[in-house]
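Table 4 source record.
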Amino acid sequence: MLNKDKFDKTAFGVEIDPLANASSSIVGTFTFPQPTILNSFSVDSLIKTALSGLGFPVWNSSKPGNEKADQSEEPATYFTFNYSTIGVGYADDEPTGELYLIQVHLYAPLSTNLTRLIRKTKAAVHGAGFTWPEMTDDTDEVRRHKIFEFQFVDGVDFDGDLYM
């Protein structure tokens, strides 16, 4: 036999009386918390945060105002970065995510040994949640230039609804 005392409240705080009027319906107001968008960051800030711990300036090469006036003002060793994006995970003709194709450029004087800094750069980028970077050497007769290429996938936001 059912005992009414066992059914006074639920986890939602709704009164339940299974023995009243042989009614099986439960009437109540349920409120749920608003969803939280976890990745409310920008890819720019992720890259800058990852590289800033290495102790050299970091610039987004596509942002206006970051150009250096002339070579004499340019620091000896520094990073720049750029990226492009591609929609991925299509459903109903809409992408559910964006794939970022990222390049980080490390510039340094020709006399600089970059072996340790290259390792630290790869570890910092990967530790920030990006794929393990591939590196290409584009050093010329003026300065050392290492290009790190890696990827990142982020959700797509349609009218406040984050997918992925």
